[in-house]
Amino acid sequence: CDISGSMDIYTKFILSFIYGFQNYYPYCETFLFSTRLNHVTRLLKRRIFQESLKLLTDNVLDWSGGTNIGFAIHQLNRFYSNFLKSNKTICLIFSDGWDRGDSSLLDSEIRKLKRQVKKIIWLNPLMGSKDYQPLCKGMSTALPYLDYFLPCHNLMSLYNLSNIVLKIS
Questions:
Q1: Cα torsion for 15, 38, 40, 126, to the nearest 10°?
Q2: What DSSP designation does 29 have?
Q3: 1 in Cβ contact with 30 (< 8 Å)
Q4: What contacts 14, CB < 8 A, 6 or more positions away?
Q5: Of 25, 80, 12, which is closest to residue 52 (Cα–Cα)?
Q6: Quick one: DSSP state of residue 148?
Q7: Is the dihedral of CA 111, 131, 136, 93 positive or negative?
Q8: Over the chain, what is the mean pLDDT?
Q9: How many CB atoms lie under 10 A from the CB of residue 166?
Q10: Separation between Cα atoms, residue 6 and residue 24, nearest integer Å
Q11: Does the predicted TM-score (pTM) go above 0.85?
């Protein structure tokens, strides 16, 4: 989940969904990113969402910073590839796609990720706007590698996501 400044207004809403996913699926791993990747699965294993949210905000240092999606995916590919199973892993990326990083790094790293997972689902809260077009650098770079490109701006969009995940898992 992208926790950069441009995602601030969506972060708590999306994290509550991720919290539910994390606590329902036993083999779910959660990462947050802005300028770097943060593995936060253990911080979400709590009974109360507010406790997890407090732990996340206390422990993730680049909250509301810039965005470097390519570097975050590079860190996932390099340090956490043991979590990725090509026939089982469904990778959900929650991000608006606004990226300050190198688009060639994003292109090569998301291509590597695509080969390591069953499906990549990118969830963009901006898709809730009828005028949205994926023109920003990060989004247009990632788009060719995605199996699904979906909105995540309201409860219905997250409900639809859960149905898709059930169907493909």
A1: 10
A2: -
A3: yes
A4: 1, 7, 94, 123, 125, 152
A5: 12
A6: E
A7: negative
A8: 93
A9: 8
A10: 28
A11: yes
